[in-house]
Design a protein that fits this description.
Blueprint (H helix, E strand, L loop, with lengths): L1 H15 L4 H6 L2 E7 L5 E10 L4 E10 L5 E3 L7 E6 L6 E5 L6 E5 L7 E2 L9 E4 L5 E6 L5 H10 L13 E6 L14 E3 L7 E7 L5 E7 L11 E6 L5 E3 L7 E6 L5 E6 L12 E6 L6 E2 L9 E6 L2 E8 L2 E7 L6 E3 L12 E2 L5 E6 L7 E6 L6 E2 L14 E8 L5 E8 L9 E7 L19 H7 L1 E7 L8 H4 L8 H16 L3 E11 L1 H12 L5 E5 L5 H7 L3 H8 L7 H6 L13 E6 L8 H12 L4 E6 L9 H20 L11
Parallel strand pairs: 31-32, 31-33, 33-34, 34-35, 35-36
Antiparallel strand pairs: 1-2, 2-3, 3-4, 5-6, 6-7, 7-8, 9-10, 10-11, 11-12, 13-14, 14-15, 15-16, 17-18, 18-19, 19-20, 21-22, 22-23, 23-24, 25-26, 26-27, 27-28, 29-30, 30-32
Amino acid sequence: MYRLSLVALFVFAAFAQTPTIDQSLSMQSVGNARISPDGQYVAYTVTQANWEENEFAQQIWIAVVASGERYELTSGKKSSQNPKWSPDSGRIAFLSERDGKRQIYLIRPHGGEAQQLTSEENGVDSMEWAPDGSAIAFSSTGPDAKAKKDRKEKYGEFDVIGGDYSMVRLWLVKTPAETPSDAKQRPQVEALTEGDKFSVSDFAWSPDSKHIAFSATRDPDISSSETAQIYTIDVADKLVKKLLDSKGPNTRPRWSPDGTQIAYITANGDPFYYYMNAHIAVIPATGGEPRIVTAKFDEDPSLIDWGPDGIYFAAFLKSNAHVFRVNPETLGIDRISSPDSFFVPDASFTPDHRTFAAIGAPPNHFSEVLVSATKDFAPRYFTNMGDQWKDFKLTTREVIEWKSTDGTPIQGVLMKPADYNPSRKYALLVVIHGGPTGFDTPESAPDRYYPMERFAAKGALILRPNYRGSAGYGEKFRSLNVRNLGLGDYQDVISGVDFLIAKGMVDKDRVGAMGWSEGGYISAFITTYSDRFKAVSVGAGISDWMTYYVNTDIHPFTRQYLKATPWDDPAIYQKTSPIFYVNKAKTPTLIQHGDQDKRVPPPNAFELYQALKDRGVPVKLILYKGFGHPINKPKQQRAVMEHNYEWFAKYIWGEEAQTGAATK
């Protein structure tokens, strides 16, 4: 009895120093750092769970670069997001749904009441200041057409698939020195593009504020992404010019400082652009022959902007992310951020590009707002998100590497309990990222979907494999699961498990796996393909590629990775589908899915559920009402995490449910 009490006391003490699910969900995080043109301020967002409204709410904060002072600029029940500085640094435009639809608001960086600038019937998607500060261009579908309203009135609501599109257009609104609070006195909105020829996505102003470059697809359907092309529009006469006719997608235009050229992201005509490298290309602003300037860079570049000394972009690099600069003439590429083990996936520069702000962190640290000189990277931090966690004992993260069964080197992030004992064997839980071109990093972050800190405190190692297809390891690596989905991915996972077992770190009889989206698909593959795991959780995962293909909103994905449709090559669809191995399934499986998911539609969940049920395999299917592919509200994320916690506590540690969340 005395020994049992000591064990119970030890477990209680461990959990007392571990964040609860609610505490993890309630922690603040920072994002979207934007430095003012004069370099004096950084606007950034702070995200925190609002349990009363059941929202992850964002508010805008300001950091004063000289003093380090910080203060909250916006507040309220509704989020304020996407801050954009006026060219004179005197105002910030941002987006908020305070009036029910997302609109543009203006506020002074020293505070005061924000003033609403737009009143769009269907809200605003994105916006950019004109360089002369006189106007803001924004994208929106605009008001519903009269014909659409009349149809709804007469027939009710219905959709013609592939035909009922609301095209996204470009609009212009003037920015008066003082925005009137009376809606009737707000500046009139002017349509820049019209008609149904294309749907606008991203855009950028020319340095002289006379033109806008934008990318657009033939319609807003995500499956039409390959039709994205680059256009320019003369703001004065609204003349639209298509710059090129090469195969897309061609996206994210950015002007050269002298306004004579435009950089953009291109697939360069590759039909398999979902996993092949994208490139940065440059084209004359009047049209002409484009030039690829990052042909030798073996990863997908995320174009930031074009400065006086080159084109800036960000990219993943193994389990890290960095900012780079390419010289468009010599094609030389320099890495701006350092050391190798650092995560900084975006940046915001002053006009001279001598200083930038970003969100970043080294391993085992939480992301913070930072400012650095561009020439010599030396981050100065302006937030302290990590202080929220100082009273907790958290896992440590390290990058490990092993060889898959075919000899391919695979990296992953291994999370160890705070009191890790190398002489002890631990349970192992594999948490698999989505994508497949996602990737895991060793930076610290609050738990979402899976309560990893709680699992570690119970005595588990957490392995997060960057399996073949993950970003950061080059085009060849991203292509290794082409016509090999699930099969090669599983070998990468199981070889990582075997690697840790061989090192004496893992109890081979207590291994589980979980993941969301592509991670859910690999988890479904594990549950039907393997008897090595004691429990699996399938989050929004694919069970049958044919079912997925005919239901999803992103058809090109499957056609590219399997290089066929189900009608062309049904054999490859069967070979890579978990459902066709279900007769071997034995593993208790939790299935989680949003009931409105268009990316991985719920029929995938029901197909796996019924098959496992018919086979007599312990299975539970939970649908989260009103959610699409992500479960993005705090109360439902609480449910997702508790359901996972109880499932693995039962099948890995032999415990019965404590809260009842997973069984009631």
